[in-house]
Amino acid sequence: MNSAARSRFAKAIDKTIAIFSPTKAVEREIARQRLEHHFRYSGAKSSRDRIQSSQNLQSPESATYSRDRIQLMKEARDLEENGQISNAILGKFDTHVTGRIHYVPTTGKKKTDEAIGEWFADWSKRADSTGRHSFRKMMQIALRSTLTDGDAGIVPYFNDDGEARIIGIESDRIGDPNRQEVRPDYINGIHIDVGTKAPVSYSVYERSEYGAYSNPENIPASNFCLIANQNRFDRYRGITAFASVIETAVDISEIIQFEKMAVKWGSMQTGIVTGSAGGPPTNEYFADGTNTSGATNQVQEVNYGQITYLDGKDSKLEQFKTDRPGAAWEGFIQLLIKLYAAGVNLPYGFVFDIANARGPGARFEAEQARRTFEGWQDIMVEKAMDKIKNMALAGAISRGEIPSDSNFMRGTWQFPRHPSIDVGRESAADVSELKNGVKSQATILRKYALDAHQERRRIAEETAHWMELSKEHKVPIELLMGERASAFAMSQTPAQAPAESKAKAFEQTLIVGNQDTPAPIQPVNVRTPVNVTIAQEKESKPSVKKKVSFVRKHGKIIGAEMTETPTGGDPTIKKIQLSKDRIARIEDNTVIEIPKL
To answer: At what angle do helices 84-98 and 63-82 cross, to 10 degrees?
Structure first.
């Protein structure tokens, strides 16, 4: 007897008891209410309003889960091949997670870092054992396979020359998908240590062109990288990222396909004739509107400038109208796509239509997507990339291609920069945070997939090159470097500045003034940057011209210099070294050091 039949039987008994003993009927109703409201969570209460889950509590690697995992893999692969939205989502993961990968060694030694960086970049081009793909492309395929199939394998090894290579293993080749075996020491292609439950080895099968699996090879777990996003402690194999949205994805595809057929059918219709006895008397068409019998033919074809005549007073011609797809249909499709995007942990606007998001909403959705992509980047690094990199570098050191160093495994991975709708605002915020010491230059440059050490070296080399060109062609460096020359000029003392440079006219200084115009008193905090007025030094008639320049070190003011230049004489410089708890102010054309308040 099912639950519905039991419910009907119980109600019949209650009605019978109520006829003979209303008091007992009330007691039964009270007992029933206590029984039904015994549950603390409404979701655990059984009722006719909704069906309770029939799922049994079991291991995520049970025979039922193993069967479902294979079926989900088949459905997800079909979506990848034929689903437009699925391909769009996978393409975004390809672009934003593994679209650009760069490894930056940080051993602490400049020459060693340069050698490792150059070698790894060169090795990445030939990492694939088949010679087809680069290291970046192999990681991109591994990520796509993991999202679609649930997991993927990478096997690094040394070839005959002692150089590291990697082999890609698709999910269905890890174990035989036609035989789901679950034993205490074996779970769907993974051999398990019975005591520790740790993977010991992986059985990798060969797959023929006709789908036959044979010749399994056991690869030790230490030499195998299984990329998967397991969501339970007892799960060893992964499931597709589209598991919760496969039904929605299929529904979207079918609804769009059916609606397209309806729109095409409606577009083929021209008009409808009502009140007629039927179609035209014959299917023979002639230009003069008559058929072989001599009767007038009702024209069905649509011709330019055509005039249509109907037989009978009750005949009527109406243009065929279709309103498909309508606004309600489009809104429903948008709802399904939102559910689809939420199932893969991406915001709807980022997946399908960012135009509907405005201002803070668009930024919030972009940040949501960034967190998802960064999570997968961490999985790729932890599961495979670090292990492969360390093995490749160890082989290169053993062959003497790069210098040996105890810190050779230290380094960071740089990934593509996440897109933003307001790059200018973020850039200005980065500059402000760098100036105020909130973030380091390395942290900011890492966001743009740039290496801080290399960028500093490039900046120094570029500045040195501008200086050489300035001296060679006798052109002021300000005309070559633009605004950057102002900071460069401030970092130079008069003795250090190039003689050929005319930086005095453009130097960023604080003009003290002359005897007739005393300088205002302005305290300067030595711990924070100072916004100094950019002015062109004016020629003055007094016999002595005074100028105050601040001395900086690593962007901070550490002292000040006062230069007095008499007409026709040599300048004299007075230097002041400021302590950390002091500030400077200008009073009567003199720099005074006073305690900080």
So the answer is: 90
